[in-house]
Amino acid sequence: MKKTILIFLVIFFSSTLSYSQNSFDVKTLDKYIEAAIEKFNLPGLSIGIVKDSVIIFNKGYGVKDVRKSAKVNVDTKFGIASLSKAFTSASIGMLVDEGKLNWNDRVIDHLPEFKLYDSYITREARIVDLLSHRIGLATFDGDLLWYGTNYSRSEIVKRISRLPVKNSFRSKYGYQNIMFIVAGEVIEKVSGKTWEEFVQDRILTPLEMGNTTVSNSEFTQASNVAIPHMNKKPLEFINYDNSGPAASLNSSTSDLLKWLQFWLNEGEWNGKQLLSKKSLGKF
Prior knowledge:
This protein is α+β, with helices and mostly antiparallel strands.
């Protein structure tokens, strides 16, 4: 995730922008993007723009792999890394809507095996704390438990209890991934489905995000996938399955534009309210 240089970019323009859809200058944007690709020495990227809930631009640039000639297009999958976290938070919100969870439930009431180094935090941590980067862990604390390891999610959750908490509970922001892995474990306990199954059934399938996968282990030789690069040198994929709720999704601009429209439509898709406006207010 940290070494992936091939860029996947989705740009969101709100209705407050000064220009109208009719005056949108595609040629100027094209030239700007092509200049940026050259300046930053990028193999390829894909860009989509939504304005007023309408897709006004969607295009791929460059190649998927510098060793080959295959071009990036709007259906090319990129690892979206920590954008996966929003899918986990939305999943929690759906379970809250169903009455199976409450944002302020104690984590241990749904996941008794949850334990941090600090007994007070263990006892008082709430579901909303898992998603707020305020649990007390410092930025990237515990990442070496999952990055490049074969530890299972349950093993990661178990081992984080041995790491001293550096910050006071809820007093300081520390961006990290472990608590989103914990949130995924809560989703499985409460719903009876794995995080992968829940995200597929409740988000990807209803939104018709057919180019999105929950794991890069699903890729085949025929898959339309952008290869990770560093300094324009191809890298091997790192499997992120053990950090799935934090980082494992792969998607395309065509699919993520639907995801953006879902949020702009306040949780509604094709006439169905998939996520309540009340839960949307938590984000």
